[in-house]
Amino acid sequence: MAEQFFIPTKVIAGKGCIREHASLLAALGAKAMVVTGCHSALVNGSQADITAALQEKRIPYFVYNRIASNPSIAAVREAAAVARDEGADFVIGCGGGSPLDAAKAIALLAANDLDDAELFAGIFENPALPMVAVPTTAGTGSEVTQYAILTNDRLQTKTSIASEAIFPRLAFLDATYTLSLPLRVTVNTALDALSHALEGCLAKRAIALSNLLAAESLRISGACLPLLRGEEISWTVREQLLYASMLAGMVIAHTGTTALHAMGYSLTYFRDIDHGRANGLLMSEYLRFVAASCRERVEEALRRTGFADLDSFQAMLKELLGEREWISEAEIDRFSAIAIRAKNIGNTLRNPVQQDLAEIIRRSFI
Amino acid sequence: MAEQFFIPTKVIAGKGCIREHASLLAALGAKAMVVTGCHSALVNGSQADITAALQEKRIPYFVYNRIASNPSIAAVREAAAVARDEGADFVIGCGGGSPLDAAKAIALLAANDLDDAELFAGIFENPALPMVAVPTTAGTGSEVTQYAILTNDRLQTKTSIASEAIFPRLAFLDATYTLSLPLRVTVNTALDALSHALEGCLAKRAIALSNLLAAESLRISGACLPLLRGEEISWTVREQLLYASMLAGMVIAHTGTTALHAMGYSLTYFRDIDHGRANGLLMSEYLRFVAASCRERVEEALRRTGFADLDSFQAMLKELLGEREWISEAEIDRFSAIAIRAKNIGNTLRNPVQQDLAEIIRRSFI
After folding, report:
1. Has residue A106 got a pLDDT over 80?
2. Gap between the Cα atoms of A35 and A135, Å rounded
3. The Fe-containing alcohol dehydrogenase-like C-terminal domain covers which part of the protein (chains A, B) (predicted)?
4. What stretch(es) of chain A map to CATH 3.40.50.1970?
5. What is the average pLDDT score of chain A?
6. Which residues of A touch B208 (CB under 8 A)?
7. What is the DSSP string of B121-152?
8. For labelling, which of B97, B124, B211, B248 has a CA lying 20 to 30 Å from the CA of B141?
9. How far is it, in rounded angstroms, from Cα B286 to Cα B308?
10. Is A212's CB within 8 Å of B213's CB?
11. Which of B7, B20, B205 has the most A C-beta neighbours within 10 Å, making it the best mutation to test the interface with A?
12. Hey, which residues does B94 pair with through a beta bridge?
């Protein structure tokens, strides 16, 4: 079967890159909607840079700052109605994964009347509005993917829209905006990126070029993660984390994710554990599970991180994660029952049954 | 200054990929122009696969098979007039670098009335027709670049159109079409790809992601080149060479080329030496020149090829290239005088003066 490589997003990276490349925004339309959360984009300077670039190019805009963490389908529908009412021509998503993914869904829903089934089926009549991604955390990789992950209360998990229609046109990577992140958020988002690169290596859909990008992402993450210990994090490390996260986004754009993400979604949905942390908590036992039948692939992935073996890798993660949450046997049953139905289960190198997932979760919380 | 990464082309790779993905062609328009040379696309099966895919999707098409090696500006103007007369909606370039680059220029000129100055300035009113690239050699990388190299008789060299408008929409990489290539063409085109990856590593415009792709391309080329010795070349090696060439194309899409290409163009223009061979002939002395002030960068690039040092690398090239052409002192003067005026000279890690280029050429033909 043929392999496919496709990342149509133009990625611009470097300090001050939005202001430097403001003219690229002017090509996207006459009116911009800036989609963000309520607070951090103001603190980290990203919103000011975006609005300054829009003002410089005399592009009318409005800011929609009501995107909460793990946005629901209802939340993006509400925002898309505003985009239509205001006549937005393009959407600039600014923030962590939540505003970026919301911006993609808004860009799609502003141009198409879709019920939930149509939205997740990925076939649309009209092209989405052009979308620009300005990540302010280094974890999601959403700036270079065709995915928008929304919280689906009907299915009690996260569900993804996967469509080439929502690849961002532009991604601006300026590590400046990550300088003010608290250590906890830095660690959690770095674990999200690590999870993307690791799962990409261990996905059935891995291809040669995704493996190359994943290996580089793992090399950088493996070198940077042990440095996230509370002292000030240098500019260079911030920039490397953002680059590794982008590479890992390019990886999952091709490979998708696997059982690790499927399990993590339950921890986030039911226990409100941060997405990156959720994956980090489950990561070592997931790797042990896969290694039981695909030892070489897991060892190769670990080797890329610079860790000698799973034990030393696990020890590093333990230190980063600190005290673990407690979860009950009833929760383990429920989470594994939901996770086993996820699409990405079938993409896992070793096929799990529900009991396998339950055991991974159980062992992760000992 | 900000770095940029952008490869909007969708790359599909694998045996039979054109037929398997025929539906992607249907999305590009109602009538196709297939641009190719007069002979090889018939022999290697690519033209039959393309026309079968078009027929299967009931897309009217016509074949324009009058693209010679190193196509001139006049040749692509003539073809663009045919594209307009026939009402082509999209262009499929099929062959080595010449038909692919011609197809890009045709796609641009069919949609825009441009004089030579406007053509090479890279600013156009109308978007180019969508263009599809089907490489049948493993060397040019044109399937993933924004360049079209045309022979410019006024300037007595090759001149490139460089514009995002001419990135192919689709690239189909099927190594089947390279199986019938003579050894000489296989070697020359592999040297072209090697040259792209090496120059990409040693370009002033190199960025982290181009270096990653270049390193992988060099690793593959370094492993495959010594296998090109007259015995039958395996499917795996054919596929690897095509992949390495595509990666190297992604590299120069970001880094551009350097003095090596500038010098090589004179050997091709005045002496009709194949483009890849021309670069291969000059490569070792070019590397020696750059290494004199940037030793570590050259050693790093060589290390990626798997060769211990420049001497062993040079010995491998010597064996592949066989007997060298003879060139006169008058030619050396003329070639270096033309090359030093090329745009890509300024992209060379160590800045040459004309005398440096003359010395590289002289030593390459001892």
Report:
1. yes
2. 12
3. 186-364
4. 10-177
5. 96
6. 243
7. HT--SSPPPPEEEEESSSS--GGG-SEEEEEE
8. B124
9. 18
10. yes
11. B7
12. B36, B134
Mean pLDDT on A148-169: 90
B51, amino acid identity: T
Q: Which of B11, B208, B212 sits opposite A4 (nearest CB)?
A: B11
- CA–CA separation, A365 and A321 (whole Å): 12
A220 → chain B, closest CA residue = B208
Give the model's pLDDT for residue A148: 96
Neighbours of A290 (CB within 10 A): 25
User: What gap in Å lies between CA B330 and CA A73, rounded to an integer?
Assistant: 73
3-state secondary structure of A91: strand
Question: Across the strands, what pairs with B161?
Answer: B148
Q: Distance between CA atoms of A190 and A193, rounded to whole angstroms?
A: 5
Q: What is the pLDDT of residue A157?
A: 80
Q: Of B227, B221, B212, B220, which is closest to residue B190 (Cα–Cα)? A: B221
Work out the minimum CA distance from B120 to partner chain A, whole angstroms: 22
Q: What angle do CA A85, A91, A97 make, to 5 degrees?
A: 120
* Amino acid at residue number A243: Y
Name, in order, each residue with C-beta under 8 angstroms of B121's C-beta and a sequence gap of 6 or more.
none
> Residue A99 burial (CB < 10 Å; 0-12/13-18/19+)?
buried
Percent helix, strand and coil across chain A, each to the nearest 5: 55, 15, 30
For chains A and B, what is the number of CB pairs under 8 angstroms? 57
Q: Which residue intervals of chain A bear CATH 1.20.1090.10? A: 182-364
Task: Count Cβ atoms below 10 Å from residue B27 Cβ, excluding itself.
Answer: 11
Q: How far is B15 from chain A (nearest CA, A)?
A: 7
CA A265 – CA A150 distance, rounded (Å)? 11
Any residues with CB less than 8 A from the CB of A85 and at least 6 apart, and which?
none
| Closest Cα in chain A, distance from residue B338 (Å) | 34
Contact A150, A159 (CB under 8 A): yes
Residue A173 — left, alpha, or beta (φ > 0 → left; ψ -120 to 50 → alpha)? Answer: beta
Considering the segment(s) A182-364 as one domain, its CATH architecture is Up-down Bundle (1.20)
Query: At CB < 8 Å, which residues of chain A contact B?
Result: 1-14, 16-17, 20-21, 208-209, 212-213, 216, 243, 247
User: What is the pLDDT at residue A121?
Assistant: 87
Tens-level pLDDT at each residue, chain B (366 residues): 789 999 999 999 999 999 999 999 999 999 999 999 988 899 999 999 999 999 999 999 999 999 998 899 999 999 999 999 999 999 999 999 999 999 999 999 999 999 998 998 877 899 999 999 999 999 999 999 999 999 888 888 888 999 999 999 999 999 999 999 999 999 999 999 999 999 999 999 999 999 999 999 999 999 999 999 877 899 999 999 999 999 999 999 999 999 999 999 999 989 999 999 999 999 999 999 999 999 999 999 999 999 999 999 999 999 999 999 999 999 999 999 999 999 999 999 999 999 999 999 999 998
Neighboring chain B residues of A209 at a CB cutoff of 8 Å: 247
Give the pLDDT confidence score for residue B70 in this predicted structure.
87
Yes or no, beta carbons of B1 and A14 under 8 Å apart: yes
The dotted CATH code for A10-177 is: 3.40.50.1970
Q: Which residue of B has its CA nearest to A6?
A: B10
C-alpha torsion sign, points B327, B328, B330, B333 = positive
Q: What is the pLDDT of residues A169-182, one digit of tens each?
A: 999 999 999 999 99
